[in-house]
Design a protein that fits this description.
Chain B: This is Choline dehydrogenase. Chain B: InterPro entries: FAD/NAD-bd_sf, GMC_OxRdtase_N, GMC_OxRtase_C, P2Ox-like. The complex is a heterodimer of chains A (about 170) and B (about 575). Chain A is mainly alpha-helical. Chain A is globular and about 55 Å long. Chain B is an alpha/beta fold and about 575 residues long. Chain B has 13 helices and 22 strands. In chain B, the strands form 5 sheets. In chain B, strands 1, 2, 7, 8, 9, 10 and 22 form a 7-stranded mixed beta sheet that branches. The chains are: A mainly alpha (about 170), B alpha/beta (about 575). Chains A and B meet through helix 4, helix 6, helix 7, helix 8 and strand 1 of A and helix 7, strand 14 and helix 11 of B. Strand 1 of chain A pairs antiparallel with strand 14 of chain B, so a sheet runs across the interface.
Chain lengths: ~170, ~575
């Protein structure tokens, strides 16, 4: 815990230039192939367009980390089993493994999962989609370049006319 | 006695000892050192230096591995502290973990603690409202607890004194219920909050919606620059520690100020076991300290002692300070020590929506919100419950994006959120009535890791609190309806006492030594060189966030203590 170390380190932690990836080695709950598949899955949810998609922003690593470290234990199984069932569903749906499908085929499969009467499939989809949106919107790239997060606003103006295009700020 | 011991005793002797470095201990340290006293400040937790020891103060949102969500193992290991709104990935280092400092819940009580230099002043909510005579006269008028030995006139100049130094923003509203202070400019309102203010003023003569008075430097004065503090930058991540010193904390203000005098010795990792009472001299002579790292006990000595260990821990220290003269705890001739504890009732809340003012929004962030001072039972008893409640209030514009799609459409939608309507909300801050049956005591067998008896806490709501929750919900619903708010929803969290982090009393002030622990100078009736000026001294709680009152009482008591020392009275 940072608190216990506080008296021993001479540099403040924020001056050490660490990145999220170097602090903890994440508890791996997915195999290499499951991780690769998750990357394709999140990329289908938020694809690369004229800006990077979820895979390029490492959102699949974020999803895995959150499920491993923060979510209730059963969510790990939801994620693992959901990924394991994905290629089978893809073959039924479009005759290829998930990663080999084109955008339309993959998107159609995700839409099918979102409407599935199978609770496990629906839970898997909701879990990954929710975390993908969160991981994407709170990524450095998006907050810095697209939503222009202000770490130090320096002000609060209470009554501002609505701009034609308004982008909200979150803490 | 050997020479060595005489030397050791001299080395460990100061003019004053301050137990605790939180919001009131910091003020005691500043005032006593400022008046020339060599002062030992004992802090049970580790040192936290301003800026240097705020590890997450400049952490960007995306740099938090879990985006500020608590890890599962942290939550599972800390069911109590995990309930606190301010405890998250970026602030874990400033809160006491459940297992480290055990206590006994005779009744459910979530005890939220910050053991470090600065205490909870690092993570507090920074609301600073003055008391008025409607508050100080409450117990006497309504027949509960005991009469306060002071009135507004006694403390008013000390409110001014601490406000100027700490930096309090606010508007001079001219309300008898919430006296004006020495204010820096107030924070801004948004359009819907203004609308609510106008509607409430139009319907009720005695209900006011004002901007909260908050310990934020909105316009720095020389005294703030002298502390090395600058203007608040509206980051609204205060509880991680502020590199600008934009809000008041012991760490940014009083402790470094005291250090600059050269008169302060700050000793972190020093858990106070008890206060030493000398039966022959008839006074306290010092304190017994357990070093939290070595577990070794050392004695320190001083002419006067300020006890500022935070409300419940100050009770614990006195209860554990037994002697032949005081078998039931230091200064406890009356038997009231540990009893008549109280807190603030934060259970109720209300939220709604508003579909007006759609051509306006807000820009930036505000570390504060509007405030509704108590309006119930102010001039006379008018409800079926005693006393009343204050309320926080705020409005904000929502935004949303359609997240049904998958793929490029979803991305497009996420990056182009649409403004929604306004949401409004309020929470209650109710006065609770101090009762003998709400108490803390020492457990007879269980000890903490330092060999000190664990504290048993028996503090609970009563029927008066339930009635007040109901009234708050009804009255705020009426006010929200008057303002045209829609989809009004009330709630009662039924949260245990403690989460308000406004526990008070147990060492109450009073006029009569037979029914109180402290006199009007926060001095133990029976041990004149011991002063208790944190939340434990509170005779009643009223509805205001209490820290400003602790600061003022501390500065006032320190002034008296030093004058009394010079006259040979203590």
């Amino acid at each position: 815990m940072a608190g216990a170390l506080g008296g021993l380190v001479s540099l403040p932690a924020w001056a050490n230039g660490w990145t999220a990836e170097t602090v903890h080695s994440p508890q791996q709950i997915l195999s290499r192939s499951q991780t690769d598949l998750l990357a394709e899955f999140v990329e289908t949810i938020i694809p690369t367009t004229d800006t990077p998609g979820a895979k390029a922003l490492n959102v699949h690593q974020f999803v895995q980390k959150m499920v491993a470290d923060c979510y209730p234990k059963p969510s790990q199984e939801t994620l693992q089993k959901g990924l394991d069932s994905l290629d089978g569903l893809a073959k039924t749906s479009f005759g290829k493994p998930f990663a080999d499908g084109n955008t339309a085929q993959r998107t159609a499969l995700l839409t099918q999962l979102s409407k599935s009467s199978d609770t496990a499939q629906k839970d898997f989809y909701s879990l990954v989609k929710g975390l993908t949106v969160r991981g994407y919107m709170t990524s450095e790239y998006v907050m810095t370049n697209l939503t222009h997060y202000q770490f130090i606003p320096g002000h609060y103006y209470g009554c501002v006319p609505v701009q034609p295009k308004a982008v909200s700020q979150t803490k | 006695m050997s020479y060595f011991n005489i030397d050791a005793q001299a080395l460990n002797t100061y003019d004053a000892i301050v137990i605790g470095s939180g919001i009131s201990g910091g003020w005691a340290a500043k005032e006593l050192t400022g008046k020339g006293l060599r002062t030992l400040v004992l802090e049970r937790g580790r040192d936290v230096r301003h800026i240097t020891d705020y590890p997450t103060t400049n952490t960007q949102p995306w740099e938090f591995e879990h985006r500020n969500q608590l890890r599962r193992e942290v939550k599972e290991a800390n069911p109590i502290i995990s309930k606190c709104y301010a405890f998250y990935e970026g602030t874990e280092q400033f809160f006491v973990k459940d297992a480290e400092h055990p206590y006994i819940q005779e009744k459910p009580f979530d005890w939220i603690r910050g053991y470090q230099v600065g205490g909870k002043s690092l993570m507090w909510a920074r609301q600073t409202q003055r008391w008025s005579d409607f508050d100080f006269e409450g117990p006497a008028r309504d027949g509960f607890a005991v009469d306060w030995p002071i009135r507004y006139a006694d403390i008013a100049p000390w409110y001014s004194y601490v406000e100027r130094f700490a930096g309090i923003s606010g508007n001079k509203d001219g309300l008898a219920t919430l006296p004006d202070g020495e204010f820096l400019p107030p924070h801004e309102w948004n359009c819907v909050e203004k609308h609510f203010q106008k509607k409430v003023a139009g319907k009720y003569k005695d209900r006011h919606v004002i901007m909260g008075r908050a310990a934020h430097i909105t316009k720095p004065q020389q005294v703030h620059y002298d502390q090395g503090r600058a203007q608040c930058q509206h980051r609204t991540i205060c509880e991680r520690g502020c590199p600008f010193g934009g809000y008041f904390s012991s760490n940014s203000s009083t402790i470094p100020w005291a250090a600059k005098t050269g008169k302060m010795t700050l000793r972190p990792n020093s858990v106070v076991h008890s206060i030493i009472y000398d039966e022959k001299k008839g006074r306290a002579t010092g304190v017994r300290v357990v070093d939290s790292q070595t577990k070794k006990m050392t004695e320190y000595y001083a002419r006067i002692i300020f006890l500022n260990a935070a409300a419940l821990n100050s009770n614990l220290v006195l209860l554990n300070s037994t002697s032949t003269r005081f078998p039931n705890g230091l200064g406890n001739d009356s038997g009231v020590l540990g009893k008549y504890a109280a807190f603030h009732n934060y259970r109720a809340g209300i939220s709604a929506e508003y579909d007006g003012e759609l051509d306006s929004t807000t820009d930036g962030r505000r570390p504060n919100s509007p405030y509704i001072p108590r309006f119930r039972n102010v001039l006379k008893q008018e409800t079926n419950f005693l006393r009343g409640y204050a309320a926080g209030f705020s409005a904000g514009r929502s935004s949303y994006s359609d997240q049904n799609a998958v793929g490029a459409d979803l991305k497009q939608s996420l990056l182009n959120p649409k403004l929604g309507g306004w949401y409004v909300g309020s929470h209650m801050m109710g006065e609770t009535i101090p009762k003998e049956s709400n108490y803390v005591a020492l457990d007879s067998s269980l000890k903490d890791p330092f060999g000190i008896p664990q504290l048993k806490i028996a503090i609970a709501y009563d029927d008066n609190d339930d009635k007040m929750v109901k009234d708050y919900q009804e009255q705020l619903t009426e006010m929200f309806t008057e303002a045209g708010f829609k989809n009004i929803r009330v709630r009662d969290s039924h949260a245990s006492p403690g989460l308000d982090i406004h526990e008070m009393g147990g060492v109450r002030m009073g006029k009569d030594p037979k029914t109180s622990m402290l006199n009007k100078w926060n001095q133990l009736h029976a041990v004149k060189n011991v002063f208790v000026t944190d939340g434990s001294c509170m005779t009643s709680t009223s509805t205001q966030n209490p820290s400003l009152t602790y600061m003022a009482l501390t500065a006032r008591a320190a002034d008296y203590a030093v004058k009394a020392m010079k006259k040979g009275l203590v």
